[in-house]
Design goal:
The protein has two helices and six strands. With 158 residues, the protein is an alpha+beta fold. It has a three-stranded antiparallel beta sheet with strand order 1-2-5, with no helix packed on it. The model has no long low-confidence stretch (mean pLDDT 87).
Length: 158
């Protein structure tokens, strides 16, 4: 009597399949680490030079006001408008300010550095007065709705 034997092939991993699988796992780990791993810290913003600190009192912000509007995508847009005057004797090619927003407890909840003169408006010559408009659409909800502190953070001369 002949007995039919059914041979069942068991699933077995071959060496090349194991190597390919390990390579895929290692590659996925490397890509994940490069994508979601630690990022280098951004460089610190430039600080006021000694000559810029001396010149600070010759730059005057005036007629500064705040207004809110709704953007085209139904998002709140806060605008700070005003004028900057150069009462000194040097031409200034860039003036940046830190806009510091606070919550109702007086704690800083948002800080943003923006240019009030130079990038889009051109240089600020001696005796010149230029208007500025700063738009913010990413202020946290806890903002106290009052004028943020405007602190001159950088001055660059021509």
């Amino acid at each position: 009597m002949a007995v039919d034997r059914e041979e069942k092939k068991a699933f077995s991993l071959s060496v090349p399949m194991i190597i390919v699988g390990l390579c895929v796992i290692v590659l996925a780990g490397v890509v994940g680490w490069l994508t979601f791993g630690p990022k280098p810290a951004p460089p610190p913003p430039p600080v006021l030079t000694a000559e810029a600190k001396v010149y600070l009192d010759r730059l005057k912000l005036s007629d500064v006001g705040i207004q809110a509007a709704e953007s085209y995508v139904q998002q709140s847009l806060v605008e700070i408008i005003g004028k900057i005057a150069n009462t000194g004797g040097r031409t200034v090619k860039l003036v940046e300010v830190n806009c510091i927003f606070h919550n109702v407890y007086g704690q800083v909840i948002h800080r943003e550095r923006v240019a009030v003169a130079g990038r889009r408006t051109g240089s600020l010559t001696p005796g010149a007065v230029k208007p500025f408009r700063l738009a913010f659409d990413n202020i946290p909800a806890g903002w106290n709705q009052s004028m943020p502190d405007l602190v001159i953070a950088q001055i660059q001369f021509q």
